[in-house]
Amino acid sequence: MSPLEEFVNRTFDRQVKLAVTGLSRSGKTVFITSLVHQLMHGLNSVELPFFQMASSGQLRGTKMMPQPDMHIPAFRYDSALEQLTGDPPLWPKPTEGISEIRLALRYLSQNPLLRQIAPISTLYVDIIDYPGEWLLDLPLLEMSYEQWSEHIAELCSKEPRASLSQEWQTFLNNLDVTVPAPEAVLREASDLYTQFLHRCKEPQYCLSLLQPGRFTMAGELKGAPLLEFCPLLKISMETSHENSFHAVMKRRYEAYKEHVVKKFYREHFSSFDRQIVLADVLRAFNTGYAAFADMRDAINQVLKSFHYGKAGFFNKLFGLKIDKLLFAATKADHVTPNQLPNLERFLQQMLIKSQNNALFEGVETETLALASVKCTLAAEANFKGQKISCIKGIPLDTDKPVALFPGEIPMDIPMSEDWVEGRFNFVEFRPPRLTNAQGRGLPHIRLDRALEFLLGDKF
Amino acid sequence: MTTTKNWKAPIFFELDEVENSADEDTTVTLNYTAPIVLPEEVTLETSTLLLTHDSEPVVASATKVNTPYPFQQKLSFVPSTAVYSQIASGWWLVSSLGLLLIMLLVVDAYHFVAQQYASSLLLGTLFLILVLSVAAAALTLTWRAYENIQLLKTVSALQREGKTIIETNGYGDAIHYINRIAHFYINRPDVKARLDRFYIMLNDSHHDHEMCTLFSRHVMKELDQHVYRIVAQRSKETALLVMVSPVALLDTLLTLWRNVRMVRDIAALYGGRPGLLGSLTLMTSVLQNLVYADVSEVLAESVADAFGNSMLAVFSAQAAQGMGSGILTARVGLQAMVLCRPVPFLDEEKPRLKEIRWEIVSSLKSVFENKDTKKPKTKKAL
Questions:
Q1: Phi and psi angles of residue B59, each rounded to the nearest 5 degrees, phi first
Q2: A159 to chain B, closest Cα gap in Å
Q3: If you average pLDDT over residues B143-172, what whole number do you get?
Q4: Residue A127 — φ and ψ, nearest 5°?
Q5: Cα separation of B259 and A353, whole Å?
Q6: Which of A122, A303, B139, B363 is the most exposed place for a label (fewest CB within 10 A)?
Q7: Up-side HSE of residue A359: CA atoms within 13 Å toward CB?
């Protein structure tokens, strides 16, 4: 497709760039895989009752197309699907680099005018998969080195970061940042900072707001000098030496922004039409209030970097804006179905700031609890004389199926002191063993409603 | 479930201790590819609910799934005492009058038959048989009419229940409700296929609102379209008939007759089988609804009619009359749709008058165009 053709397609609603946004391990890859799988198996399907294009039989087939950018690897749909449907089935490995997929959807046109000219139309859907860690780089674009340092220093003054970053903090405190420092000292400071970030990422802390993103997921930049910098705890205002610790760090930070973040942003994140924000709320529940607050802040901060606005004709001509935004709580199958409204409510409260911003710009928003691949079954059990609903599935750490009552999701965000140890313990499940993944769409929860919301009006 | 708050989750159960959710039972699990291969002791039951309903009569049967829900009782409408006593005295008058009439008839018939017996045994027997067969026929007819009215009542009860279910949007109630509605259509080959497909579509994570929406969209929608076409057709026909009929009284009779038939057809398509009496009751409630309709809405529409069709009125007063009765028929039809559909309409699905109006206008216009081209000497309206 030539650039001109692409331009025309986007202007006339025949191409959609879908932003799948989510922090690391929020289920982006599984979501994309499931979405592609559903669409490829969506002919006259009963799996997508709420996606009207598919359930009404107007969809005329979906095909993966060669992606527009030759220098970006293709999304490894086949390997992700192979892992999901293998024996034993596994969740796809965490994404380490950026990849792209373009789908072409053929459909019977409904527009009476268009139907005369071209009865069958094509909609192109572009989706990008990337490590969620990198997303946290986007807020850096708006921050100078000093602002960023202040921000990090503030975060590190509170638990659990304060104790996790102890080593790095003492190292910096014993250092005079206004004088030139040898390369070894610079390297050690950044090493200590990187170690701190890695510790934050460990499952028992599960913090999300880890900047810069490449420090925890280097990708192709592994070992590059670009990644050897760290923020300062105290900013001294006096004009320091040109090669002082401060000045060198600042130069590297700017270079990182220029060469890594801006490139990433310009190439992939500057123009989207639709956005879905995936959040693994249950994991935050399991870890505690600090992790929850961190996840909330991280997502809200990241979402500031996107352009929202009503998609008028001129908007489409000059720079695109996201005109529909979907917040999705993933792993909806890990709780009993009657908890889904609570899950949605909870996510909505968590991201109310971003929703407010988007609504202000005239963007349509919705909150859904979904499961890209449904791995449990709903059931009922008698317990202490009460009938309670529970779920059946195979937990991640065993091989045997179990039936369990996973606990309830609070209607409102609990106070920080209420997140006592073990109050929430949502068990993670393995993907289901599928007998017929080649013949029909993967089982899911509300993926069809997500599709309808994101793409339904483009047909 | 406030008590569950204090339990330390997760609570594990033995696999054979748990039973699958209601939805799981009903979603025709035979065709359902189980996402998880569970040990053999977990039995997934087939859609017993649907199957057992096959032989059941629609109105009766208080099975587990048919029992009303507690919230429904809470919401049941209790008229205030004043209205109640008024209705009661009115009913008292009517029923005593009816009883008197029946008693008079019986006594009269008895005397008549006795008189015949006095003159001849043969004649007496003949008339006795005649009188008895008339009585039997009348009784059957009454019983059937009563049944039909009960059925209509069931429909409106279902509607009310559906409304509460959709508004509450809980989990697990809708399937019972939908099973009972599915029961209306179980013997209809045109709906059965879509019903089956609908049951395959369901899964255990669908909430009540979603389930009702899916049912509306995938089962009821084609019925709705069919009924809507009937309403449009009938309104068009009424408009044309009234336009060509020369006598005003005939107009009224025609409109009434066609409306009653249309309401009956609509009820029949939606699964009710109203007889004459049933359709009259239905007609009454339709008219009641129309009378009590939002005045502003009616006004706005009438104004639109009046202005929009001034062009028709220029052609002929007769055509404007036709238009009027056509619109009335359409309105009666749409109201009957709302009353007869067991699942209440969701907001975005409500049938609209607009298209019908347009159709009526265009059909009337086409008549005029034909007249103008073929027969220039149009018979002047009376």
A1: -75, -45
A2: 26
A3: 86
A4: -130, 140
A5: 55
A6: B139
A7: 11
Per the CB < 8 A criterion, the answer to whether B331 and B238 are in contact is no
B41 touches chain A (CB under 8 A): no
B35 to A427: CB separation less than 8 angstroms, yes or no? no
ipTM over 0.95: no
Smallest Cβ distance to A443: which of B21, B35, B210? B35
pLDDT digits 0-9 by tens, B14-28: 777 777 664 444 333
How far is it, in rounded angstroms, from Cα A132 to Cα A28?
A: 8
> Is B228 part of the contact surface with chain A (CB cutoff 8 Å)?
no
Q: pLDDT by residue (tens digit) across A401-448?
A: 888 888 888 888 888 887 877 778 888 999 988 877 777 888 899 999
Query: Which residue is it, tokens 């393995």?
Result: A430
Name the minimum distance, in Å, from the CA of A442 to any CA of chain B.
Answer: 9
Do the chains contact at B20 and A406, CB–CB below 8 Å? no
pLDDT in tens, A357-414: 999 988 899 999 999 999 998 888 888 787 888 888 889 888 888 888 888 888 888 8
The two tokens of residue B283 are 């007609």
Contacts of B45 in chain A (CB under 8 A): none
Size of interface A-B (CB pairs under 8 A): 141
List, for residues A210-239, the tens digit of each pLDDT value.
989 888 888 788 778 788 888 988 877 666
Q: Is B33 on the interface with A (CB under 8 A)?
A: yes
Q: What type of residue sits at position A136? A: L
Task: Give the sign of the dihedral formed by CA A71, CA A77, CA A80, CA A82.
Answer: negative
Cα distance between residue A208 and residue A213, in whole Å = 10
Instruction: Specify the residue for token string 């990241």.
Output: A302
* pLDDT tens sequence across B298-339: 555 555 555 555 555 555 677 777 788 888 888 888 888 888
- Chain B window 207-226: which residues touch A at a Cβ cutoff of 8 Å? 207, 210, 213-214, 217-218
**Residue B77 contacts A, CB cutoff 8 Å:** no
Q: DSSP secondary-structure letter at B294?
A: -
**Which chain B residue's Cα is nearest to A374?**
B35
Q: How far apart are the first and last CA of chain A?
A: 20
List phi, psi (to 5°) of A129. -110, 140
Residue A277 phi, psi (nearest 5): -105, 115
d(CA B135, CA B129): 10
In the structure, how many helices (H) and strands (E) does chain B have?
15, 2
pLDDT confidence of residue B148: 79
> What pLDDT score was predicted for residue B273?
65
Of residues A375, A403, A440, nearest to B13 (C-beta): A403
What is the model's pTM?
0.80
A379 neighbourhood in chain B, CB within 8 Å: 18-21, 24
Q: Kindly identify which residue of chain B lies nearest to residue A449, measuring between CA atoms.
A: B210
Strands A377-383 and A15-22: unpaired
Residues B43, A225: Cα–Cα separation, whole Å: 60
Mutate to test the interface with B, among A45, A46, A444 (most CBs of B within 10 A): A46
Chain A partners within 8 Å of B201 (Cβ): 46-47, 49, 55
